[in-house]
Amino acid sequence: MFLLVLFLVLALFAIIVLAKTIRIIPQARAGIVERFGKYRATLSPGLNMVTPFVDRVRYVIDMREQVVSFPPQPVITEDNLVVSIDTVIYFQVTDPVAATYEIANYISAIEQLTMTTLRNIVGGMTLEQTLTSREDINRGLSGVLDEATGRWGVRVGRVEIKGIDPPPSIKDSMEKQMRADRDKRAVILTAEGQRQSSILTAEGNKQAAILNAEGYRESLILNAQGEREAAILKAQGEGQAILTVFQAIHDGQPDQSLLAYQYLQMMPKIAEGQASKLWIVPSEFTKALEGLGSTIGDVAGIPTETGGPRVRVDMGASEAVEVRGSGELAGAHESVEAALREAQQVASDVPPPVEPPVDPPAAPDAGQQPPQQ
Fold it and tell me: Where does the record place Low complexity bias (predicted)?
């Protein structure tokens, strides 16, 4: 029984000694071994052997890059405004012995150093610069922390500003300012758009007016050319008509009696006008009436009375009219006599022209004839 108890005690002791001797360090970790309270060695990851009851693994340091987010800290800017700034630190332990024995708590030391450095940097900036200069703040913090933590066996990879929160009143003012600035830019953009629209509209109207003027000018030119051609053609037509009529008259060989007879035929049509109050009878008309009575039987186109049953009257160079009976001859004579009487009546009814009272004119020359009315 005694031997059994002794064996169990020895086995338990062996197990304890073995447990104290064998140390397993995880990957990306480093074990700090102390012997009687003094640093002895640094254990690497894996299976390690130490002296039991003499050596002791004091710390196991994480060698991976770590991320620490610090709570918001109040910082006063250059323009005496208090802002809360959140920071995030990325660091890695490069020397486990220095991180263990050079600083008591390197995480707390990094936090305090970050806050003091941040106050120094932001204290020289205004609120506007603080909000728009995060990269400058990050570079300043990284330089100071890397220089200070190098002797602690810690390397600061980067520092990021997580958030900058100004006071609520400043937020309201900033929002109003931002809103006013956006409204201003909106008004400017609207005015610029209207200006561009007006310019484009004016240019379009200008081009349209130019095109309209050119079209109107072309139409006027074409109209003028058309009117010119029409006038030329009309003048040519009238000239041809006059030449034709003149040639026809010339071929017909009219005399003064025929012209007087044609004038008598036009007198009733002249008398039909309602506004005809004053007639101007030329002096040649009286002469024509005097010659018409004596030559009525010889006017071309009017048949004369003869003793035979049928006679033929000369109508000109190319035409003749055959008189068929004495009834037609009597009707022609009656028509001519009625026309003569009507013409004489019209000539007697014409009032003399009323001349305004003027100074008596000078005596005409002996060879000058007075004008006829």
Answer: 364-373
Residue 359 lies in a domain: no
Q: Check whether residue 135 and residue 51 sit in a common domain.
A: no
> Of the given ranges (84-98, 189-203, 356-370), which has the lowest mean pLDDT?
356-370
Position 326 in a domain? yes
Please report where in the chains the tokens 């990325």 appear, as a residue: 90
14, part of any domain: no
Highest mean pLDDT among 124-133, 261-270, 272-281: 124-133
* Domains of the chain: total: 4
For residue 70, the model assigns a pLDDT of: 87
pLDDT at residue 309 greater than cutoff 50: no
Burial of 242 (0-12, 13-18, 19+ CB in 10 A): exposed
Instruction: Note whether 281 and 275 are within 8 A (CB).
Output: no
Q: Which two tokens stand for residue 207?
A: 């081009």
Give me the pLDDT at residue 241, please. Answer: 82
Q: What are the structure tokens assigned to 325, written together?
A: 């009976």
pTM of model > 0.85: no
Could you tell me the CATH number of the domain that includes residue 113? 3.30.479.30
Cα distance between residue 368 and residue 359, in whole Å? 20
95 in the same domain as 160: yes
- Residues, the chain, total? 373
Q: Which of 138, 118, 130 lies closest to 78, judged by CA?
A: 130
CA distance 300 to 258: 7
